[in-house]
Design a protein that fits this description.
Distance between the termini: 22 Å
Structural class: alpha+beta
CATH class of the largest domain: Alpha Beta
Largest sheet: 6 strands, mixed
Helix content: 10-25%
Number of helices: 10
CATH topology of the largest domain: Beta-lactamase
Strand content: 25-35%
Radius of gyration: 27 Å
């Protein structure tokens, strides 16, 4: 897992979420022209218990020097074979089993700002030809190794008559001296990853200062629910008491295992200490209607009452089984309300729960945000509920929960649809062990909006 766990101007998401793990597959030895000899699968491994394959190609995150170093270091740790093309220092290095076996000067690259500017990214050697004729430039390129479309690593080009091209000539390729490229050609196989870095990849006046916000929480995580990109993180794998964030799993189990039309009669054994008492002994209420105070007012009474539909022991057992199925390996539930300090999870595990809610149980989030516009079960019988969620009324807020207890301090899980530079992105913010969950979450949210 790649994630920054030290202080730097770059947010710690780079070291934890976007990790590049190279798994060297057994390659099928084919001919050297246009065929992959060795197949390297580039995989994102994350602390959320999942893996996502990365499609080779332009990777704008590699404009960032800290991220580039992180990815390169991971390749080295994995004892991978790869090529490093640093277009800022104009050096090309060849690694075998994580060790540099060749270090060469790059003589030219694609002109900045042109259509053929060499893009930062992670590619792989696609073809090898000792003398490739470029139909684009009408020149021969010695010891050519294509790594992305019309982009090659090659020696000094020459015209069909043998005359070398002028020094300023470039079609966007990475050019080496003939003696150097011949060595590179001999060292690498088709399929070898090519890690290209260009710190000036983005050409505008915007600068990334990445001032890490002052957050009181012991652990937090802000990440993209669609691609697992981590914007900011601290101790995201630390097991901590989560208080009423537990109720999000309570809502999941309730909606997946209980007939929400079914009703229960409130008795004394269901009563619980809660911030805004709503339930009365002898009151008959449906499971569906209990979800509203559960998620809007964080009602402990509603949480306990919902557990009675299946039996308290079975209900909690299902909560733990569900967390296991979602890959929440460091999570344990001991009750349905979160009142007990042994309701334990991590920010990374709660990211996995956020992802499930966003993609599969979005109505739970809408209900928590007071935005459930339609339901087959009708409107809530509660007309005077107070939504305790910090971001209630924020147009970007999708849903979530807050929590508070002596053991957990203050906690919060909030999901947003944010209009970032890359478009609208689903982002979750998890804060655990906070002295100020509202302030911490807002500062993290402002950070994401400012820099991304």
């Amino acid at each position: 897992m790649v994630r920054k766990i030290f202080n730097s101007p770059i947010p710690s998401w780079v070291v934890m979420v976007l990790v590049a793990i190279l798994i060297v597959g057994v390659g099928i030895f084919l001919n050297q022209f246009g065929k992959i000899t060795y197949n390297y699968d580039l995989v994102f491994g994350d602390s959320f218990g999942g893996k996502e394959e990365f499609e080779y190609g332009s990777w704008p995150a590699l404009q960032n020097a800290e991220f580039f170093k992180t990815v390169k270091d991971k390749f080295i740790d994995e004892n991978a074979d790869f090529i490093e093309g640093d277009l800022s220092t104009m050096r090309l290095k060849v690694y075998k089993k994580g060790i540099v076996v060749g270090d060469f000067e790059i003589l030219s690259k694609g002109r900045e700002g042109s259509w053929w500017e060499t893009p930062a990214g992670v590619y792989r050697i696609q073809t090898k030809e000792e003398s490739h004729f470029s139909s684009f430039g009408r020149v021969y390129m010695p010891y050519s190794m294509a790594f992305q479309g019309n982009f090659f690593i090659h020696g000094w080009p020459y015209y069909p008559g043998g005359e070398p091209v002028a020094e300023g000539y470039s079609g966007g390729c990475i050019r080496l001296a003939d003696k150097d490229v011949k060595q590179v050609y001999a060292l690498v196989e088709i399929g070898t990853p090519v890690l290209v870095f260009e710190k000036d990849f983005i050409k505008d006046d915007f600068t990334y200062d990445f001032e890490i916000p002052d957050v009181t929480a012991e652990a937090y995580l802000a990440a993209d629910l669609r691609n697992n990109f981590v914007f900011l993180e601290k101790n995201s794998s630390k097991k901590m008491s989560i208080a009423s964030l537990t109720k999000l799993m309570t809502a999941v189990i309730s909606t997946e295992y209980i007939n929400l039309d079914q009703k229960v009669v409130i008795d004394y054994s269901m009563k619980a200490t809660t911030s805004l008492p709503r339930l009365k002994t002898g009151q008959e209420i449906s499971a569906y209607n209990l979800l509203f105070p559960l998620l809007e007012e964080s009602s402990n009474e509603a949480a306990v009452a919902l557990s009675f539909f299946l039996g308290r022991v079975r209900f909690v057992e299902l909560m733990n089984l569900k967390s296991g199925s979602l890959g929440m390996a460091n999570t344990h539930f001991s009750d349905s309300s979160g009142a007990h300090e042994d309701n334990i999870s991590t920010a990374a595990d709660l990211f996995a729960l956020s992802k499930y809610l966003y993609n599969n149980r979005s109505f739970i989030l809408k209900l928590s945000a007071g935005e459930l516009e339609w339901s087959a079960y009708g409107a809530s019988t509660f007309q005077d509920l107070k939504n305790l969620n910090v971001f209630d009324g924020d147009p970007d807020f999708v849903g979530g929960k807050v929590g508070m207890s002596t053991a957990a301090k203050q906690t919060i899980l909030s999901i947003f649809d944010l209009n970032l530079r890359s478009g609208e992105r689903p982002v979750t913010i998890v804060v655990l062990g906070s002295e100020d969950n509202a302030g911490d979450a807002r500062r993290i949210l402002d950070y994401v909006k400012k820099y991304y």
